[in-house]
């Protein structure tokens, strides 16, 4: 065990990865050093995910594994979303946890560790009743580097009323980060030579609403792009239906740095189900907007997410969703069975759809999407795409096109080795359900 050392596990989404990297920077500043194995660390930290039951189960398993193998003198800390949501109950669920720190005050991690180490054997909880995420970020960049790509968090928290979602309970209301701070961090990432900048928040299209900005994401992008001319790809994740404005569409169609890619989680297509979810239910707007975007941005790649088995969802509602998916032909689609979330508005509805019905509906949706995805991919055979290379070995390379966000979408397999981090044109020669394959483009 090394003195003043820590081992940090980050679970869940890219937004959690940003928080983990920010905490690591603060610990490094305070004289701690990261280690690669739990047995080497004085402090074990798990930045948990608490969004749905499956994520909470994974968090508990990781915490329990570390608790069982914990040595004398080691401290185990549960940080992040699960800690904020379940608070002291988490310690009862996973014996062996020495402390909890929630999402609202992640920036206190170093001082909190000093307190915890000064009182060994006494579990200490850092869960102040702050209504929102703290804004005193101590100058820590809110970024997560992953090879030649980087996530940049532009806001935290959420003000949307979705009945099924526990994010407002976990994060509080939205807090947009100052525009100039975001621009500075993007310039810093540019100086590190990244090729892809991914803007994230719980709802990127709501950026700036709490700062009095109208169409804040567009205002941010208009100032951001001239400051980072050396970053060829800027990707936008987590757009909220109804808030993809004409201004955003115009900018995406004219600014070459902004990738023709949008992640817009729709959650369902049946109006009664959407109303029960307290989600935007104007499906005419959805159809018109997608049609408008595809007309203005011909190469547009659309990703969406649905929830299946929401309380009250009937077979007819499910069939309506299937027909909508056939009609829209999304490039990428994720679907999750409804997860009962205590404390949310939907909790009063219970969880009446049987688990086997949820699973059957999820499988039907994914079988349909696989057919649609394969057809979409086959259309790219013979075309040439720029590929950001992320790995190589055994004579092949793996990368992503503009159509593929990290970790959630497809890959492109290249039939020779290319340096990691390089962006190179690839002629597509093969198509699988989710992935493409090809060889390096060579002009004749």
Could you characterize what this model shows?
- This protein is an alpha/beta fold and 444 residues long.
- The chain has 3 domains: 5-126, Rossmann fold (3-Layer(aba) Sandwich); 143-378, tm_1862 like domain (pyruvate-formate lyase- activating enzyme); 384-440, OB fold (Dihydrolipoamide Acetyltransferase, E2P) (Beta Barrel).
- The chain has 13 helices and 20 strands.
- The chain has helices spanning 14-29, 53-69, 81-86, 89-93, 109-118, 167-171, 179-191, 216-224, 246-254, 271-277, 283-296, 315-328, 355-378, and strands spanning 5-10, 33-34, 43-48, 75-80, 99-101, 124-126, 143-146, 149-153, 155-156, 175-176, 196-200, 233-236, 258-263, 301-308, 332-337, 384-393, 396-400, 412-414, 423-431, 436-440.
- The strands form 4 sheets. A 7-stranded mixed β-sheet has the order 7-8-11-12-13-14-15. Strands 2-1-3-4-5-6 form a 6-stranded parallel β-sheet, with helices on both faces.
- A hairpin with a 4-residue loop joins strand 19 and strand 20.
- The longest helix is centred in the C-terminal third of the chain and has 24 residues, at 355-378.
- The protein is globular, with a radius of gyration of 22 Å.
- The mean pLDDT is 95.
């Amino acid at each position: 065990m090394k003195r003043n050392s820590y081992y940090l596990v980050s679970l869940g989404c890219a937004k959690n990865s940003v928080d983990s990297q920010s905490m690591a920077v603060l610990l490094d500043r305070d004289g701690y050093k990261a280690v690669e194995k739990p047995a080497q660390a004085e402090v074990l930290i798990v930045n948990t995910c608490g969004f749905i039951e499956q994520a909470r189960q994974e968090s508990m398993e990781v915490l329990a594994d570390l608790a069982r193998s914990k040595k004398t003198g080691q401290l185990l800390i549960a940080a992040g979303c699960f800690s904020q949501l379940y608070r002291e109950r988490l310690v009862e669920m996973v014996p062996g946890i020495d402390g909890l720190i929630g999402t609202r005050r992640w920036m206190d991690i170093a001082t909190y560790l000093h307190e915890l180490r000064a009182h060994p054997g006494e579990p200490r909880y850092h869960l102040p009743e702050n209504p929102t995420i703290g804004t005193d970020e101590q100058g820590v960049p809110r970024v997560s580097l992953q090879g030649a790509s980087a996530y940049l968090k532009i806001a935290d928290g959420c003000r949307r009323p979705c009945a099924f979602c526990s994010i407002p309970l976990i994060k509080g209301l939205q807090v947009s980060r100052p525009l100039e701070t975001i621009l500075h961090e993007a310039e810093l990432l540019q100086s590190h030579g990244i090729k892809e900048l991914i803007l994230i928040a719980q709802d990127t299209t709501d950026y700036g609403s709490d700062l009095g900005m109208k169409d804040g994401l567009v205002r941010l992008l208009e100032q951001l792009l001239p400051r980072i001319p050396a970053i060829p790809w800027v990707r936008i994740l987590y757009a909220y239906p109804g808030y993809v404005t004409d201004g955003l569409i115009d900018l995406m169609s004219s600014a070459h740095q902004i990738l023709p890619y949008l992640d817009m989680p729709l959650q369902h297509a049946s109006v009664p189900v959407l109303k029960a979810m307290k989600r935007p239910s104007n499906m005419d707007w959805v159809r018109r907007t997608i049609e408008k975007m595809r007309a203005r941005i011909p190469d547009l790649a659309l990703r969406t997410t649905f929830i299946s088995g929401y309380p009250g969802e009937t077979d007819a509602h499910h069939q309506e969703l299937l027909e909508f998916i056939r009609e829209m032909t999304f490039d990428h689609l994720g679907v999750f069975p409804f997860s009962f979330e205590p404390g949310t508005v939907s909790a009063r509805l219970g969880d009446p759809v049987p688990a086997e019905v949820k699973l059957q509906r999820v499988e039907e949706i994914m079988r349909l999407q696989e057919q649609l995805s394969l057809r979409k991919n086959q259309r790219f055979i013979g075309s040439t795409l720029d590929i950001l290379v992320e790995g190589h070995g055994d004579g092949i390379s793996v990368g992503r096109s503009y159509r593929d966000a990290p970790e959630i979408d497809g890959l492109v397999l290249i039939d020779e080795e290319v340096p990691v981090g390089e962006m190179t044109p690839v002629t597509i020669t093969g198509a699988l359900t989710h992935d493409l394959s090809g060889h390096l483009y060579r002009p004749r």
